[in-house]
Amino acid sequence: MSTALTFRELPYARESLATVLATTGAIGEGGVVANSVVITDATLFYPHGGGQPGDQGVFITADGRTLKVLDTRKGDNGQVHHLLDPAHGLEAGQSVTQQIDWERRYAHMRMHTALHLLSVIVPHGVTGGSIGAERGRLDFDLGEASFDKDELSERLNALIAADYPVTSEWISEAELDAHPELVKTMSVAPPRDAGAIRMVRIGDVDYQPCGGTHVASTAEIGPIQVASIKNRGARNRRFTLVWDETAEEQA
Ligand SMILES: [Zn+2]
Question: Cα(173) to centroid of ligand 1, in Å?
């Protein structure tokens, strides 16, 4: 049985009930059982993927024990692996209340959506990326093109302030294959789920395959700035975004 990805349709849900399907040991470095994997029938926890970190949080048992979820990873057969300390004591069939670390996840949602907008104003192939609660980055194959970070920051904040709605929809693999220009990421194949592709739309400015979690409207991202543009090889440039704390204080 696969894990229902509740976070996908309900990215704002912070707490939900789930049933434990199975638990196994996760083999860490040196063959030591570092953590234990807990698989549930449904999850609010986003598993590490597409540059977005796995969620952290807690599972609360029916008898009131609070168990830390250290990380979340993709497993086999559509299952999601929650990594817990091996002393969790959970068994298949037990119900748990899942609570995600919302502050961290919401920062990921805001930063992730901001990186979509960065790919709008830097219209070049994306060769890599990573999302954090404090900063996010995308690497682009720029070729000869060059950009000014202050000008980009201004354009980015204008797109954020325009408050575009962010929505998702599913298309078939055949539809995506007929429109390869929709794929901006050169290094990662878009997530495919039983022949369907999840597309994320930001108003009329961005439309691309993505399996991550996003905010519902761009204004939620808040003030941001392009902190640096650095060389990563002959053609690649790394664009790093950070929150604009000074603008937040003025607001
Ligand atoms: Zn996305």
Answer: 18
| Mean pLDDT across the chain | 92
What's the pLDDT tens digit per position in 85-144? 988 999 999 999 999 999 999 999 999 999 999 999 999 999 999 999 999 999 999 988
Domains of the chain by start residue, with CATH: 4-100 (2.40.30.130), 105-250 (3.30.980.10)
Q: Using the mean position of ligand 1's atoms as its centre, give its distance from the Cα of residue 85 in Å.
A: 30
Which tens digits make up the pLDDT trace of 138-158?
999 998 899 999 999 999 999
Q: How far is the CA of 192 from the centre of ligand 1 (A)?
A: 14
**How high is the pLDDT of residue 248?**
60
Expressed in angstroms and rounded, the spacing between residue 166 Cα and the centre of ligand 1 is 10
Going from the Cα of 116 to the center of ligand 1, the distance in angstroms, rounded, reads 6
**Which residues on adjacent β-strands are paired with residue 58?**
68, 99
